[in-house]
Amino acid sequence: MKNDLERDLGLYATVTISMGAMIGSGIFVLPALGFKKAGPAVIVAYVLAGLVVLPAALSKAEMATAMPESGGTYIYIDRAMGPLAGTVAGIGAWFSLVFKSSFALVGLGAYLLLLVPLSGGLVKAVALGLAALIVVLNIVGTEQSGTAQSIIVTAVVVALAAYVLNAGVAVDTARFQGFADKGTGGVVTAAAFVFVSYAGVTKIASVAEEIEDPDRNLPLGILISMGVMMLLYTLVVAAVVGLNDAKTLTSTGPGAGDSPSLTPMADGAGQLLGGVGVAVISVVAILALTSMANAGVLASSRFPLAMSRDSLAPGGLARVSERFQTPRNAILVTGGLLLALIAFVPVVELAKLASAFQILVFSIVNIALIVFRTSGVESYQPSFRSPGYPFVQIVGVVGGFALLTQMGTLPILGAAGIIVGGVAWYLLYGRSRTDREGALGVILARRRDEEPVTSD
């Protein structure tokens, strides 16, 4: 059976898939949580989070042009640091993305309730239905999924631009007073929690094998989507802060009293246009969160595909459907996990745990690029090279670990749990099936050869 995927995603689809993985909970749910930690300076927290993500985005853009294969993060870390590190990264990135997609579909329930009075069970049923639809869409074809993504993301960006423009006439500048009252610590903590808002920027690398002209479209797609989203997040979060009083953002959540709002965009729209504004933004939020989940399934399903090709996962996951030219089995396994999480697990908490692993992986991606450059392996021939190497990558590593320390004990333990699980899978399944070594092995072998021989 043919196991190659078709290249049918152009630059626009590449950009919108990347943006679709970012336009979701980060903009429709998290601003109020960030505001609670940083006050109006949550705007700065979003910029800071974007700057910490940028080095990893540049690193992935370079490595993607050298290895335009499905698997993204898994492929780069595996080829740089060996199959053990690759297994941990592949399983962890897969879980993290599926958690994020589950969180998006469950999170849209808060906006759905603003449109129609549904019971909790019906909201979950809608989320499960959308998840099943997304799985089917991904199986039918990447081109169809990419087209749907392009349409949805374009509509959402236009709506967000209109939101910002309309907010300009209604923003109350008094709400920015005491901008930095919660100090640098509050901003850094908020940046750690909203970091996942940008985590989708490099997920397009997971479907690199299906992108037309990857040498051009991959780095351009990553950098364009990153630039657009940093600007969009800054403007939208500023509008949310300026439209809502602090009490609305920090104490109108489902727990009431001390819970931040889960619908800060709709809260602001209510200040602008009343009930009509709430309804419009709720529809946009549902589209955006569905888009985010679709991008997550599209990208995350390529991790088991790539690991299967390397004998680190069962061989059936590498099969590509002859009819649809998509990795059906990998999508079905990913979709099964997605449905199970929505149905049985408190996904909001798991998404928080998974975010810590995302920060860790972004730091390791920067280390992987340094390993490739240092090793000088002949097979590493990127057409795009990250500017500012290695200083940009070092800043990314230090910044990532600095944010990780602000996540709290439980998320860090969650990341550690994913690492332990990945190591266990490699020892029990992968180690006996592979004897590869990464570029790091080349560096270590070279240094062993250079060590002087001492005589007795």
Q: What would you note in describing this structure?
A:
One of its GO terms (molecular function) is transmembrane transporter activity. It is found in: Cell membrane. It comes from Haloglomus irregulare. Keywords: Cell membrane, Membrane, Transmembrane, Transmembrane helix. This is Amino acid transporter. The protein has helices spanning about 10-20, 25-30, 30-40, 40-65, 75-80, 85-115, 120-140, 140-165, 185-195, 215-245, 245-250, 265-300, 300-310, 330-345, 345-375, 390-405, 410-430, 440-450. The protein has a single domain (about 10-435), classed as Up-down Bundle (Amino acid/polyamine transporter I), CATH 1.20.1740. Helix 15 packs antiparallel against helix 16. The chain is about 70% helix and about 0% strand. It is globular, with a radius of gyration of 22 Å. The mean pLDDT is about 85. The longest helix is centred in the middle third of the chain and has 37 residues, at about 265-300. The protein starts with 10 loop residues before the first helix and ends in a 6-residue tail after the last helix. It is mainly alpha-helical and about 450 residues long. The chain is built from 18 helices and no strands.
